[in-house]
Amino acid sequence: MRFAEDGRKYAPELYRISLFVMTQSTSFTNLAQQISVWAADLGFAQVGICDTDLRVQKEPLQTWLDSGYHGDMNWLTENLDKRLHPERLVEGAVRSISVRMNYLPGDTRHIQVLKNPTKAYVSRYALGRDYHKLMRKRLAQLADKIRVAAEPLMPVNQRPFVDSAPVLERPLAVKAGLGWAGKHTLVINREAGSWFFLGEILTNVPLPTNDTVAADLCGECSACLKVCPTDAFPRPYELDARRCISYLTIEHKGSIPEEFRTAIGNRVFGCDDCQAICPWNKFAHFTQEDDFKPRHGLADSDLLTLFQWDEQTFLRNTEGSAIRRIGYERWLRNLAVGLGNAPSAPSVIAVLEQRRDAATPLVREHIEWALQQQKNPQLRRQRKLPRRNQE
Ligand code: B12
Ligand code: SF4
Prior knowledge:
Elements lengths: L1 H9 L1 H30 L4 E6 L6 H9 L13 H5 L10 E8 L7 H6 L3 E4 L8 H20 L7 E4 L7 H7 L4 E2 L5 E2 L7 E8 L19 H5 L17 H7 L6 H7 L2 E3 L3 H4 L24 E2 H5 L3 H7 L9 H15 L4 H11 L4 H15 L16
Parallel strand pairs: 3-8
Antiparallel strand pairs: 1-2, 2-7, 3-9, 4-7, 5-6
The chain binds cobalamin and iron/sulfur cluster.
């Protein structure tokens, strides 16, 4: 206050500038508070703001890629510059406004379905409407509100993202205070577990940043590393995607390596095991979004029923869902693996044989494998792959 009074008397210009800066920073502080309110109204469970300096990620990211852990997701090797420097993705971006949205639908009895080898287990995130669409729309609404409020103060340049662009969403979410990166590499929040999606707005508006990063509360626990059916963690906090069932059933386009087929069990789209076992998920909140609720009985369907869908039924029943992204051929491939792991039954053998001749070479190869498993159950190897590293 003294400075202001003196400034007013002796340096009117300096006073005017400092008043402008103070007013602006007060406005940005108010805007940050307002963003939390808007984000809650739009259905986000939490919002946090951080700067976009990700230089510390350069080495771990490069080591991960050099190890080949990304498999054939070659897009992860592209645009590294933008991944590590968000301001090169959105010109002038100095902040990430990171959000999370809960997706676990209530009462989907996921453990019972997973443990029933005649059922198809679909990852809980993919039971309803494709989250990319829903979250991007909500983030765009949030971005519009921010633009209207900030534009009187400065020209605004910003873009919302969910998953699709070269953005390191987890490191940004951690910096923004949404949680810590668990040993399974997903972001965990101490009050909400990890069943949530992440998204962010990269913006040039210099909002105040979160100053407390959540402590890593994994401690001595290594339940996720041990439960992984395909032993996909070479080390805690590091995932070899080539072994992850989520990668094998969703991202991977070709034949599923035989060594993983038995361990995949009945997981036909993604995998949730490392989250399902995590003790922090007893604090998880069910989603409030009707759009994430299961459609077409996908939470609890028989493998055989889904395998008998023709392409039209597949396209109709997966409209607006993330499952559609893998296409009918990979859907059948995954279901054939599931049926190969199902209890031996004449009805399963009959349906597999029925579909074999008209199948594409990729699907036929998986059907042949499934038939061999069905007809020779004594050949089945142990379901879960043993751990190679015991750190
Ligand atoms: C590629 C990808 C995958 C791949 C690879 C996963 C992986 N662990 O990288 C596959 C297909 C396997 C996959 C699977 C799943 N995914 Co995914 N995936 C992505 C995607 C598109 C990119 C992730 C990425 O950049 N990986 C590269 C690695 C190297 O990056 P990273 O793990 O973030 O690691 C950084 C830090 O951990 C850090 N780091 C690691 N060690 C150390 C050590 C030190 C000292 C330091 C400083 C840093 C550091 O360095 C890394 C590089 O910067 C993101 C969306 C996005 N754009 O971010 C979603 C995302 C991570 N996936 C998500 C989900 C939900 C899943 C699944 C649960 C889906 C399912 N049910 O099947 C599974 C979970 C499997 C698992 N345990 O990770 C959510 C996670 C939400 C959350 N709570 O964290 C995301 C954020 C999508 C979203 N928008 O919500 N996914
Ligand atoms: S999602 Fe499943 S397969 Fe992938 S790392 Fe987690 S437990 Fe392993």
